[in-house]
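re: that complex we talked abt at group meeting.

here r the seqs, copy pasted straight from the sheet so there may be weird spacing, ignore it
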Amino acid sequence: MSFNIKEWIFTTDHKRVGVLYLIGSIAAFGVAGIAAMLMRIELSTIGPTITSNPTQYNVWLYTHGAVMILGFQIPALTGFFANYCIPLMIGAKDVAFPRVNALSVWLFYVGVILALLTFVVPDPPDVMWTGYPPYSTITTGNTALYSFTVLVLGFASIIGGVNFLTTVAYMRAPGLKWSNLNIFVWCTLGAFVLQLIFVPVLGTAVTLISFDKYLGTHFFDTASGGDVLTYQNLFWFYSHPAVYVIFLPFIGVVYEIVATFAKNRVFNHKVVLWGGIGGIVILSGEVWVHHLYVSGMADWIRIGQMVTTLLISIPVGLLVISLAGTLYKGAITFETPMLYALGVLFLFLIGGLTGIPLALTSLTLHLSDTYYVVGHFHYVMAVAGTFSIFGGVYYWFPKITGRMYSERWGKIGFWLTFVGVNIVFWIMMTVGVKGMPRRYYDYSQFPQFQTSHQLMTLGAAILGVGFLIAVLNWIIGARSGKPAGDNPWNSKSLEWTTVSPPPHGNWPSPPSVEPDWTPYSYERR
Amino acid sequence: MHSEHKRPSPVGRAARKALTALLAAGGCGVAAAYQASAAAASGAASRINDPAAGWDHLWHEVIVDITIIGVLFALVMAWFLYQYRARKPGEVGRQPKLSPAAVIGWAVIPTFVFMADDFYLAANGWKLWNDYRDVPADRMEVKLEAGMYSWDYTYDNGVKTQNVLRVPAGKPVVLRMTSRDTLHSHFIPDFRVKEDSMPGRVTYLWFYPKEPGEHIVSCAEYCGVMHSYMAGKVIVMPPAEFKTWLDQEHAKLTPADKPADKSADGVADKAPAKAG
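got the structure back, here u go
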């Protein structure tokens, strides 16, 4: 495989676009991860540790949140995995609009560069990833950079969504029914439907704060008849569904891995599609007020959305039962991707259940804006999603590169990360319940938490080493790993029926499938 | 709670039964909470329900609930991982294909189990929520204006304090809050309560200080560069001491600072303050 940089930049091949998304999002993960490490070092002692400037800390906080979500998780899941896997899983030569696809990855890089400018501009944004006014409209920090980053990445995601909905609707291999599509494909379609509905709302919100700050409008300026709560509603009307934009593809990746390494059919496949994925898509737009439980919303809606939030447990519960059922009577092996997938299940179980107290409005009056919330969402979304991305990259690594990574280093990296995240985020939840507020540069008001903070810093160092080992393992494996063969995991899914790495166009002649084929029918052949 | 993977044999009957029972259970819980809220609203409850005590109670209940669910799931999963590990290379899974009845059973029964638990928790959460929002009639009102980076309290008799809220033991305290700049959130961890303050609106929270003592106040909503230094405290004093202190402070006020027709004890017997 000769390397030609021009071929990569101007590529319209969905697999190369996918790999570009992967490289960009892993780079973003590195930057946002370094920001997290700097925060953890800062918090290892009471008072100033490595910077005496709270603004510096707030910029790390902003970078960590905004870049992890907008630059790493969403692009890795709906950019890399969707691009690389969906055409292969449905037996298509490419996506429906390959040039639009190239445009979306270019825009993604523009967004990442905008995010990185944070470290260069004189007044970097310090508005957290939420950008709440009035602070975002009166700060000397560069709120415009925040707005443009969100808008560019949001637009990239929208055109990606149009592309993939069209691709799956019109380009499936002959004989491939909707109901037999991989669960990952369904999950990603659900995520793109949510992006298409909700991203414009976020775009509106961040545009309006920039209008207020730079053009003198008064959308959120109460002195002139505006209202600060409007922004919070617009923001979370998108950003709660955004949690499912991340959750759906990551649980889809876990399904592919678990079914392959249990060599088993997916338990209750149809209920996963209609009850699990469908239920989440339908409920996702009715729960945003649980982010505003202490924001001064009307009492009735804080109670109404407590009930809708609790009901999310139903589709999520169906998915977890189905994943457990997929192990039943399986023939399970424990390669690195499977360890990550099981890690996701464990983290997600803790994260999901610790979300139940937060669904209750009255308990959230104490828990809101504390480390408990931060610990919970890192378990349920941030770390579970990241484990799923790492597991997925390991799983499709032989397909992407044609080579095998080191199984030994893969497992070492996994266990370090797994231990590290549990140290950090379990302790985080316990100090949160005791009252430690989030987004604190200095916790001199709470000296009793210093030991806990130091343990969290230690845990962060351990998990950082684990992630670093994983990334190095990929780089070394891609350059000099052993040839992997076309289907090292003996998977039944379509993407493993072509050669590794697949050529431009994916198959010499498009595959067709038998009527009774599913990606998970192991026992029949 | 889940007899995982035993096929529910007479699915239709079992599902109907479970459905009826669980809906009834959930319905009862919601009805109970509704009655409780109605009772509280009509003033029938003479006793003051301390939300902080209610919080601790509900928290422990929920922790037990989620621990049971979590341990059950984890044990089933761990057992499957051990029991169904591949014994020889090339082995494949042998999961039976579900019958249509089993498909429906495995969707409907978990749905109603989860829904019953959801409604049970929602009912309890709602009941406690009513305690948090229904301010007892016999209370002390204090106005709070939050700003970058201080808590400015004003008592009914015109006395002002900054970052220190002195209150008498044994009397519920309600804060009517607004902000002069960005968002802030008045968080008193010991009383398990917080609520955002923002420009242009008045929000409220109340708490019930029973014993003399000191309690930390933190800002819980990111408000600017010095957010983490926006600290304060609530000092709960014996009632007599508090009255002495308030009278002394009141005596120091210039006539211009004194509100026209207020009694000096700081207790409001009027309707809640309106925004403006």
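couple things i noticed - The mean pLDDT of chain A is 94. Chain A touches chain B through 87 residues (CB under 8 Å).
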